[in-house]
């Protein structure tokens, strides 16, 4: 029952020390892989032998349909080829101006709030990150009402999906959870589907050549191997995946950023000085980048990557059977007692320019590793630098002593009741 609320509640102190763990569920045998050499093998060297687990597809299919986040094999390869074309073109031509416009709107919304005020960080970060990815896809802003509706639906979907998945793993009926989560998924998919449908109706492929957003790129993408293009439903699936993965993961990390900044006034001032010195040069913001990387270590938005063994084998002397689940846990690898000094402490200097050494390969993987690493990693890093620098230039943040967020692990790593900090205009 505890795990039905958060998978974090299944972890023990030994989870952060072991190299290979296992537990048996009625529906499957599960192995937790904390050995960097095996993480490299599973994610980088031999990913074809360890495809994404079918349960990941079942957990997300109502939201994102058939898209690269959950597909495998030839289907994934085709989708990734098409997505690389669309995402690459839009990123090069449009991302920064769109991010800047969305950040300016974010600052304007926050400037009219009372000062000081207790800020609902989750809602604000979800709005700006959703606005950024929405503008990149559709070339138009996302309203506050639309953002609130989508945020609420996804929070409810995560909660319901966690419960449904746990019941399924125990071979118990999912009761009303499946129907309820599908209802929440329809709120999100129907909203995005209406935008995609309108675009297909209003513009031909020839018209799209004059546009430069991701939606245009997806419509114009041609598979170099067979010359096919994406259908409307295929485009919608890719849009849903990009929108949800692109804003939810960034919003999660940025929310924890602002909470930790509120706890660290001295760090806040150091980062603000860097932002003032380099307001138009995001690549020079080394301290801001280091801080964000450390937050991604402590609170990786996607806490685990489920894979499936395609054949019988041995891992660290333990027999693994075909069909067994293998879990690679960024949450555990990032806080593992063997791989990090003082792993539970927040220390941005781990990633600063004066750091003594880089993390051991295979122990730091907030965006995963290998061919299936997140396509939006560079996008997310640029987005974070811009959002954080703009916030630091315009506002002070302080912790609220009576508010201590409790971390929960569902589809992403979030706080169970949100995150609040004290906001004051500068």
Q: How many domains in all?
A: 1
In sequence order, what are the helices and strands, one letter per element? Answer: EEHHHEHHHHHHHHEEEEHHEEEE
List how many beta strands DSSP finds: 11
Helix content range: 40-55%
Which topology does CATH recognise? Cytochrome p450
Global outline:
globular
Give the integer mean of the pLDDT values. 90
Beta-strand share of residues: 5-15%
Secondary-structure-derived class: alpha+beta
- The CATH class turns out to be Mainly Alpha
Order of adjacent strands in the largest pleated sheet: 1-2-7-4
Radius of gyration using CA atoms only: 21 Å
CATH architecture label name? Orthogonal Bundle
Any low-confidence stretches, pLDDT <50, length ≥5?
none
Distance between the amino and carboxyl termini? 46 Å
Number of continuous helical runs: 13
Name the CATH superfamily classification.
Cytochrome P450
- What does the largest sheet look like? 4 strands, mixed
